[in-house]
Write a structure and sequence with these properties.
Layout (H helix, E strand, L loop, with lengths): L1 H13 L5 E4 L6 H10 L7 E5 L4 E7 L2 E7 L5 E8 L6 H10 L4 E10 L6 E8 L2 E8 L4 E8 L7 E9 L9 E9 L6 E10 L2 E13 L4 E6 L2 E8 L2 E8 L4 E9 L5
Antiparallel strand pairs: 1-2, 2-3, 3-4, 4-5, 5-6, 6-7, 7-8, 8-9, 10-11, 10-17, 11-12, 12-13, 13-14, 14-15, 15-16, 16-17
Length: about 260
């Protein structure tokens, strides 16, 4: 019984957030880079980070899935976190999550394999508009840890004004002053409609309406249309982004700021 209690305590402690700093690959010890190549042949790390526990973490993609592999400075493997589909988690884990977190959406699910743990763990990040919850379970569906992080409540509803600048390679394009009227979709917590005008000779000319979706994790507003996709990153009460054509070429650069509400 004491051994089980100690093991569970270690698993819970291991789920606590660990601060990390990004590293250039040249700053990673050779033993760590060699260990990564040996364990995951043919893999090049996309990014490296150094955690406060002195472990080196390689972040890369393997077979289409996000993978984070952790190593000690001497090259010993410590942990691998692999992105998986929620449907591939053991049924007891899925049942426990759905029962305990109704109203949340699955944002990310991962399988955790650790050298210090006798069992595979499953980590799930769940989101609602105002908070994010990260939980860890063992394969039997037993909750090992949970953490909640309040998320800022962001509403894009309102009037936005700024500039839409043409990028090289599109001679028919014209720079414009634009006004976007953004309204929330009542039936979709992440849905918005964006009605846009351009200002011509001091007069508003309507450009039409787009159906958009707000990715609160990024956070970014994404509006698809037949000619391409508009994407705006939300930052400091501004929307910064533009239009990307279907062939992947950037067409416009846009920066708009929320207009002050009229008294």
């Amino acid at each position: 019984m004491r051994l089980v209690a100690i093991t569970t305590a270690l698993l819970v402690a291991a789920s606590a957030p660990i601060a990390a700093q990004k590293l250039a690959e040249a700053a990673v010890p050779a033993a760590v880079r060699q260990a990564l190549t040996a364990k995951f042949s043919g893999t090049n790390a996309h990014t490296w980070t150094l955690r406060s526990d002195k472990s080196y973490v390689a972040d890369f993609t393997r077979n289409g899935a996000s993978v984070k592999a952790s190593f000690a400075a001497t090259g010993e493997w410590r942990e691998t976190s692999t992105e998986i589909g929620a449907i591939t988690m053991p049924e007891p884990v899925r049942t426990a999550v759905v029962k305990s977190y109704r109203g949340y959406r699955f944002a990310e699910t991962r399988r955790i394999d650790r050298v210090a743990a006798p069992v595979t763990l499953y980590e799930v990040r769940l989101e609602k508009p105002d908070e994010t919850v990260t939980v860890r379970y063992d394969g039997s569906g037993k909750l090992l840890s949970s953490g909640t992080k309040a998320a800022p409540v962001i509403s894009l509803a309102g009037s936005w004004r700024g500039e839409s600048i043409c990028l090289p390679g599109h001679p028919a394009c014209h720079d414009e002053v634009v006004v976007y009227r953004i309204t929330a979709v009542p039936t979709d917590s992440n849905g918005y409609d964006m009605d846009g005008d351009k200002i011509v000779n001091g007069q508003n000319e309507n450009m039409g309406k787009l159906a958009c979706s707000f990715d609160r994790h990024t956070p970014a507003l994404i509006c698809a249309m037949p000619q391409g996709v508009w994407k705006f990153v939300y930052r400091n009460d501004s929307l910064i982004g533009g239009l990307i054509a279907t062939d992947g070429s950037p067409v416009r650069r846009v920066a708009v700021r929320r207009a002050a509400a009229k008294p």
